[in-house]
Amino acid sequence: MIIAAVQNRPAFGQIDNNLEAVCNMVKDKEFDLLVLPELFATGYQFKSKEEAQEYADVAGEGKTFERLSSLSAEKRAVIVYGFPERQGDHLFNSAAAVAPDGTSLVYQKTHLFDTEKNIFDPGLTGFRLFEYDRVRFGLMVCFDWRFPEAARKLALDGAQIICHPSNLVLPHCPDAMITRALENNVFTVTADRVGSENRTGAPLRFIGRSRIIAPDGVILGELSETETGFVDAEIEPELADKKRITPGNDIFVDRRPEYY
Predict the structure, then answer these.
(1) Residues 19, 41: contact at Cβ < 8 Å?
(2) Cα Rg of the chain, angstroms
(3) pLDDT at site 168
């Protein structure tokens, strides 16, 4: 299968334009999985929870969900993207997976980064899998990378590909995802954004470097720190099911959690 990521430069609050820019970027591309960045259509730096509520969608509703569901059906591909999720009075930094058959799943970000704690509620979904066409996808969002337990939980539950919508500002994640792939023997797809925002007096520069990484830690494709674009790689998801690294070592069977 072909797995891919988009790296975009959203203009804050311009959902229609940001959404169409991404759709235009992939209209002539072929893929079976597409991962888009965290908050890819809204922008990142909300001034208040009230402002974020104005841009948020209920899970499974709204123009972003409808447009990407249509794109999923058109491309016959799973699409994973980040969005602000409204659930009553609660607001989550979420990622959704949508499939061509109309099924979908929402994951709410577990580990909030810095000022996100002033805007979003900690996620309640926990880490779980989305399965389509016999391929098992795990979802995590941005700062979840800093907690090895996130990728490990998804891998232990059977994820073959970890989809990782992100808005990265720290420099460490792209290289850390090599370790996440290697220690769990899974594919990882980190989709980041580029550009900067300064809406709250605390300027942020997003580092790009979206990457697709194989279970052996090899970088299969990546983008730069400044470019917008599309990156893809052809993979065999079943390689992630093979946890044996020597004739005598299986990285999951050899675990001794009673000592951790």
Answers:
(1) yes
(2) 17
(3) 98
- pLDDT score at 137: 98
Task: Give the CA dihedral 146, 150, 154, 156, nearest 10 degrees.
Answer: 110
Is residue 88 exposed (0-12), middle (13-18) or buried (19+ Cβ within 10 Å)? exposed
- The proportion of the chain whose per-residue pLDDT surpasses 70, expressed as a percent, equals 100
pLDDT for 218: 98
- What is the identity of the amino acid at 63? K
Catalytic residues: 38, 109, 142
Q: Take residue 117 and report the two structure tokens written for it.
A: 């704690």
Question: Has domain 2-259 been given CATH number 2.60.120.10?
Answer: no
124-133: long-range contacts, CB 8 A cutoff, minimum separation 24: 124/92, 127/153, 127/154, 127/157, 128/157, 129/154, 129/157, 129/158, 129/159, 130/78, 130/97, 130/99, 130/105, 132/78, 132/99, 132/100, 132/101, 132/103
Low-confidence ranges of the chain (pLDDT < 50): none
pLDDT of residue 237: 98
What pTM was estimated for this model as a whole?
0.97
pLDDT of 126 reads 98
CA distances from 77 to 86, 131, 133, 209 (A): 26, 12, 10, 23
Query: In Å, what is the CA distance from 69 to each residue of 2, 23, 90, 103?
Result: 19, 12, 24, 9
Pairing mode, strands 78-87 and 90-98:
antiparallel
Contact partners, residue 158, CB within 8 Å, separation at least 6: 129, 136
CA-nearest of 121, 111, 63 to 91 is 121
Collapsing DSSP states into helix, strand and coil, what is residue 244?
strand
